[in-house]
């Protein structure tokens, strides 16, 4: 079920780099632009005058990067304590399309912040940012109107569904593909906003496939960005030109014919910690399903760094919406509670790791492959060698990197969700995330004795690399997972109208029913911990079905009733 693949890639640096990444290149990479290599080598020697010369030559050799090289030159001149030259090169980018994207907060510029010229320059930057912001807000207004219209149409459809007289007829209608949607505004992207946590507005953008047809349904992938702790607030409008999410994710999603969704996060509202923002992704998916025709059996989540950790967290905490999970440079750990790795039995994960990643080492990923084999978890691990640092794959544009993304998406599209699988295992330490498909731990009883089969998965990880110099392997070992709270667990199967459920430290459990699972014309039998707790026919519950559909807009996992049992 689990396996590991190794990619060995040659030394090729990025086509262009943000300044804070350049310090990692010296001595590590050989570029297709030799001037970049010479620039990096002189950075390593702190020969700033020569670094400036090579930055300018690199810009001449590759005009697309010219303005980034001016920023390089400004940074090097500042390190060389040449204020006049610093401002000369900074002013070269004022009329460029990257003017507002420069890393002007770099410490190398700190000594210049009292210079009157710095205040003048940053005033221009802030004015340009505000102009861009106002332009984005103005151009976003048609998208806001479209979003209102699409969501209003979904509410109208729900009103029509409520008029269907019988529960069985409602079920048959819900199982039908969604009704056609109008084609969206012209262009590759649609801008949207999720109302969240009462007063929070979360921007996200939707990237549509080429030749998008509103009459068809499409698979969907949600791409999660990294560095969530560095985001202080949400932008007013999602920036579709921003490579923050990783241009390779965007390009490959388009090439693979998926609708791709890119939600933003902040240090408080995100997919890692705290739990305040964990529902952003599920709620965005539900909202997109109301506006566009999505194949419910092919919804995926992926990302880089903190985004990959987020994808892993949905696998272990809230997998029900998804068919498959993947991530690049992942640290596989749930940050808001226990990492209950056995929950991964219910889905799959496609993991891509690089050899010079400080976030989680090769040794840890290999140990996880071994654990996955033990528990028969579909876990694929791809190793990328070549002194590849944490940010390499999200920035690189070389042929080997493109092949890695193609393989990731190809694997993704082989996965289809089966919400009716006959066997489930689920464990949680917070009943908010107590559900997987048709089984739910409704309440916990962590004071009860733990069953023998309910044991944590532990292993240690060594081989950690230094953040600033990943060539250095640190002499440290740590636990892969943490377990701050006691948990409850359930192991459940069904066959021939009978459910057999085993629980450990659970106060109550709920079973969700579908005609895909049971014959409702016959009695449904439920056994919990070797005791028969239910043996009777179950009717479809129309109000329950409408409530579930209003929330989920799911045409595959249509639940018609549920049964809840207290554990004695």
UniProtKB/TrEMBL annotation:
The keyword Hydrolase applies. InterPro entries: AB_hydrolase_fold (IPR029058), Plant_Biomass_Hydrol_Est (IPR050955). Keywords: Hydrolase, Signal. SUPFAM superfamilies: alpha/beta-Hydrolases. GO terms for molecular function: hydrolase activity. This is Uncharacterized protein. It comes from Larkinella rosea. The lineage of its organism: Bacteria, Pseudomonadati, Bacteroidota, Cytophagia, Cytophagales.
